[in-house]
Amino acid sequence: MNRTVLQVSILVLVSAAASLWTLPVAAQPHTTVLQAENVRFDYAQVLRVTPIYQTLRATTVEQQCEPEPADKSDSRLSRVVGAVREALGRERDPKPSTGENCKPVPVEREFRRPIAYDVDYVYKGSRFRSRLPEDPGNKLKVRVAVTPVITPISTSR
């Protein structure tokens, strides 16, 4: 008996659910019609890409050392070799510094890096401009969506 009551209860629930499906849309409470979105993807021709730069400045302290003067005891031969090197465009190597002629000097550097790109492109004869995070190259993938304009129904005549 218990099983029969359960079967009847399920049958009643199934038939009630089926009757909801057969009601007209206007009679169903809080019904929202969801329309499938009319979207497709296509490619636009890129006309120009202009990078947008961020300028960063950094100051570091570096050791700047003056070369030590050459010894007075240079031989005549080494002076001649040095003169020939200079004439050939090779600088004479100064003696390396021992650290006695060094001082800390602030050095400022400037870095520029692209942070975005202004892209001019044409799609179906219309020109557009967008700021993008990356350079798209020659073609730009675009999302094309078509949605009808629905004017509100006026109640006053």
What are the defining features of this structure?
157 residues, alpha+beta, four-stranded antiparallel β-sheet, 2 helices, elongated
Question: What features would you describe in this structure?
Answer:
By secondary structure, this protein is an alpha+beta fold. Helix content is 21%, strand content 40%. It has two helices and four strands, in the order αβαβββ. The chain has helices at residues 2-22, 76-87; strands at 39-65, 102-123, 126-132, 139-145. The chain has a four-stranded antiparallel beta sheet with strand order 3-2-1-4, with no helix packed on it. A hairpin with a 2-residue loop joins strand 2 and strand 3 (126-132). The mean pLDDT is 77.
Give the strand line-up of the largest sheet: 3-2-1-4
Name the average pLDDT: 77
Q: Strand tally, please?
A: 4
Helix content: 10-25%
Instruction: Give the termini distance in whole angstroms.
Output: 64 Å
* Uncertain residue segments: none
Order of helices and strands: HEHEEE
Report the C-alpha radius of gyration, rounded.
41 Å
SS summary, helix count:
2
Largest sheet, in brief, is: 4 strands, antiparallel
Structural class: alpha+beta
What proportion of the residues form beta strands (DSSP E)? 35-45%
Shape: elongated
